[in-house]
Every structure is written in C-alpha cells, then in structure tokens.
Specification:
The complex is a heterodimer of chains A (406) and B (97). Chain A has 406 residues and is α+β, with helices and mostly antiparallel strands. Chain A contains nine helices and 22 strands. Classes of the chains: A alpha+beta (406), B alpha+beta (97). At the A-B interface, α1, α3 and β2 of A face β2, β3, β5 and β6 of B.
C-alpha cells in the first residue's frame, strides 16, 4: 500500500487564505534582473524570506514579497532590483489617512445601507380594479405604512384591522414585506352599481332648461309631460309621486330620460387690443430633493424680486439606469417673470380666435347632445369682434331633484 | 574527510538500527520529485546559479544541478526549496563543477 505524502509546496498551495493574509499584512512587487537573480535569491533563501507568485519575464523575474519581511529591503536595495510601493491594507490605510473623505464616504454609505434596510422603499398594490392605487397608498401612509416608514415598527395585524375600518370598498387587505418593498394585496368588495337611497328619500325628474318634449323614457316614477309639450325650466317631467288605481299614491325615486329640443345661445367677444404676457427672461429655479419623507433644499438659481411669475413645479422619482425606482424624488420649481403689455391684433386674427373659441364651446355643449342646426351671426364694432350663435339641440334635459317624505 | 565518512556511516547505521529514515538523524539533503515539473530540495544551503535553463544549488555533499527549461525557484519555507518548470535532468555530487 502506497501512502500519499503531499509535497511541501503542495501543502502551501492549499493555503487558501494566503491571499487574504497577504492583503492584510501588505506586500510589494519585486522585479529582479536575471543577471543578479541567483545572488538575490540566494540571499533571500539564506535569510529565510518567503516570496510568492513568482513569474519569469523576458529579462527579469517578478515576485511578491510580504511587507512583514521588511528586512529584505537591504537585500533588495541594489541595482537591477525594482521594488514597488506597498500594496494591500497598509496602502489603503495610507490613502485613507491622506484622503479621509473616502473612508468617511464608505462609512456613510454602509451606515445608510444599514439604516435604509429597515425602511419601506416602495409600496406596490395588487388586486385593485376599482379603487385607485394612490388612494390605497395614501391611506396606508396615514396609517404609518408608507414610503420612508420603518417596517419593523409596524404591527401588520393592527394595520389590516385599521385599514378595513376606514376603507369600506376593500374586503380585505394584506401587506407583505418583500425586502424593503411593501407588497399590498387587496380584494375589493363587490359594489352594487344600483344607487341606494335612504328611507324617506325620493326624487322627481325636473327640466334643467326650456324645451319641447320629443321623447320620454320612464324607468321609475310616472311621466308628468307628454310629447310635443313645451316645458319650462324647473318643471317636473317625471314625477316621484305615482298614482295608484285605487286613487291612492306611492312615492318612488324617479328616473328616466326626457329628450327635448332646446335652444342654446352662446357668444364670443375678441378685442383687437388686449393685454399680453411678455416674459422678461428672468427665471428662478429651485431644486429640492425628497428622500423618503425628508425634503432637502438643494439649491436656488436666479432671483426674481417682487415680479409677477408663472410657476411650474414638477416632481420626478429617480430610477437609476431605468432598472428600479428608488424612494428619492427631485422636485423642480421654475418661476418665470412676466409683464403685461398691450397687444394689437388684426380683425381677421380676432375673428379666427373667436371662431376657434366658439367651436370649442360648441364641442363641449354637444358632448351629450345631438346638434340639429345652428345659426351664427358676427359683427365687428368698436375694436371688438363679436360672434353670436344659436344652437338647436336635441338632448336629455331631465335632472334629479330629491325630496324627503317623513 | 575520513571522519566525515565515518560519521556518515555511523549515522546511517544508527538510522538502520532504529529503523528511521537516514535524513532524520543526519543533514543529508533530500530530493522529492513530482513528475518532471516539480521538485523539492530539503537541506539546501545556497543558490549558486539561477537561470531559466539551469539551477545550481549548494547542498551538503556537493552541488545539485537541475537542467531544463523555464525553471523557477519558489517557496523558501521551512528550509525547503522548490523548483518548478520542465525538468530534463539533475546531477548531484562532490565532483560536480
């Protein structure tokens, strides 16, 4: 039976921690010319100085010597030998002593990582279809489970109970911490789309403007007008008081639609001389950084003193490299100073603007109505372009007017 | 010289008597070889030549020569010296020059 005896160097190779030890003790890279290699290595060997990772180069031999064998410096201080600066931990300490900002920055980074690891970085909501995510996160934030809150302090059972008590649209809610992200699972209640009315609450359908009735569709209640009838504003179109056959009556919450022909008069005035905003070019930019719930004012650029300004404020959440959103927002507020100056425009331009504005009004009015025809009249007088329009619309003019019976 | 020979013979005899390796009771150099790529020398007292093709070591009892290519010395630990590289041949003895 052959007994395996490892070579001495093999044992050394198995020393996995030599690199770590070398880093902590510090090391230097030495290059010895081949002409004096025998002499140098002989002295190193006789002095019992260890070296590692030797490599033969074209005209020299390079190896690493640990800083602890500082006595070798005498051996290595000769022509043909190049000794590098110290590497490893001593070098790092030396650099840190020269530039204390580096270790300070590293320390702050690790301190921040340690601190922020117990903080909610993001809240993600799943399972909501009707309730807005912002509404849920705002409510959770009020209950102490928002971005920037320490999740170690949250009693999640209590949170679920508190949330269910204030938000009635949610059947149940569960908050699960996935790292520093609060994942919120919600299940919404089935909401009956039909309106519920309290006891003793009833309603009529009344006309919101004058018109001639063309069509009546009663869903609940009793029709109080007939087709072709002229109705005035406020007149009951569908009554919530329903007569019964025996002469009695009952109350209902009237609903339905009453399609009428109506006339709508609109007008637009555009003056050829008017005030106009002119920006002076002076701007004020304020950048603020929001980290979790802390707001830090970074800097203010420019200065406006006592002027009238337009202010635009934007807030963007940081997303480094587009990978993930972090709980850091940058708020930018830009104020631009302006002054009012009189502007003179031509009559043609005034008419164009008036038509544009009128068309926008017509578009808004005909969103829920059918335009049968329209009459337009325009005039230019005393520097004002005036345009008048009569719209003949076909639309539902009924609106609900509630009443209470005790 | 005669004393030395007697001493060596004596150490050899003691080692045989106690059934222990000769190197345990004397300063005899020991050479370990692992294939043709690696060699360890215990009991080396100095380095005389060190090139890529030839390494000459001073040991008790004479010079130890290693011939090959890309020869490298390494691991000067615990009195052990390692030679790495393509080892072609070795020679050892008092008559080596």
């Amino acid at each position: 039976m052959v007994k395996y005896v490892p070579l001495h160097s093999e044992k050394m190779r198995c020393d996995m921690l030599s690199g770590v030890r070398r880093f902590f003790t510090g090391y230097r890279v030495v290059e010895v010319s081949t002409e004096i290699a025998a002499e140098v290595f002989d002295e190193l060997y006789r002095a019992g100085i260890q070296f590692e990772r030797e490599t033969r180069l074209a005209s020299s031999i390079r190896f690493i010597i640990r800083e602890q064998y500082i006595s070798a410096k005498d051996i290595l201080c000769r022509d043909g030998v190049v000794v590098s600066e110290v590497h490893g931990l001593p070098y790092c300490l030396k650099v840190m002593c020269i530039r204390p900002v580096i270790p300070l920055g590293i320390a702050i980074f690790f301190l921040w990582m340690w601190y922020s690891s117990g903080i909610i970085w993001d809240v993600q909501v799943y399972g909501n279809t009707k309730t807005d995510e912002r509404e849920i996160t705002a409510l959770l934030d009020e209950l102490g489970c928002g971005i920037g809150d320490r999740f170690g302090d949250i009693n999640f059972n209590q949170l679920h109970a508190d949330y269910a008590a204030v938000q009635h649209d949610i059947a149940w809610l569960s908050v699960f911490m996935n790292g520093t992200v609060a994942e919120v699972q919600v299940r919404e209640l089935y909401r009956d789309e039909r309106e519920k009315h309290g006891n003793g609450e009833y309603a009529n359908i009344v006309a919101e403007c004058d018109g001639i009735v063309e069509e009546i569709n009663v869903f609940e209640g009793q029709a109080a007008v007939h087709e072709g009838q002229l109705v005035r504003r406020g007149q009951v179109l569908i009554s919530g008081v329903v007569e019964e056959k025996d002469g009695g009556f009952r109350y209902e919450y009237a609903s339905g639609e009453v399609i009428c022909s109506t006339v709508e008069a609109i007008h637009e005035n555009i003056a050829t001389e008017r005030a106009k905003k002119v920006y002076t070019g002076r701007e004020n930019t304020e950048i603020r950084l929001r980290i979790f719930k802390k707001m830090i004012k970074l800097f203010v650029k420019g200065g406006i003193e006592g002027g009238v300004c337009d202010t635009i404020s934007t807030m963007e959440r940081l997303c480094p490299l587009g990978l993930c959103e972090i709980p850091v927002w940058i708020e930018k507020t830009v104020s631009r100073e302006y002054v009012s100056e009189n502007e003179q425009i031509s009559a043609d331009m005034a008419s164009e603007e008036a038509m544009l504005s009128l068309n926008n009004k017509i578009r808004r009015l005909t969103e829920n109505a059918e335009l049968e025809y329209k009459e337009i009249r325009s005039e230019f007088e005393n520097g004002v372009y005036r345009i008048e329009c009569l719209l003949y619309l076909r639309r539902d003019i009924g609106k609900t007017a509630e009443f209470t019976v005790k | 010289m005669r004393k030395k020979i007697v001493h060596e013979k004596l150490s050899g005899r003691i080692a045989r008597f106690f059934e222990v390796p000769t190197e345990a009771v004397s300063n005899t150099p020991v050479f370990h070889m692992c294939g043709a790529d690696e060699m360890e020398i215990v009991g080396c007292t100095g380095i005389l030549e060190y090139t890529a093709d030839e390494v000459v070591l001073l040991c008790r009892g004479g010079k130890f020569k290693v011939y090959g290519s890309g020869l490298m010395l390494s691991d000067f630990r615990d009195g052990v010296l390692s030679v790495h590289g393509k080892i072609r041949s070795t020679s050892f003895g008092e008559n080596e020059v």
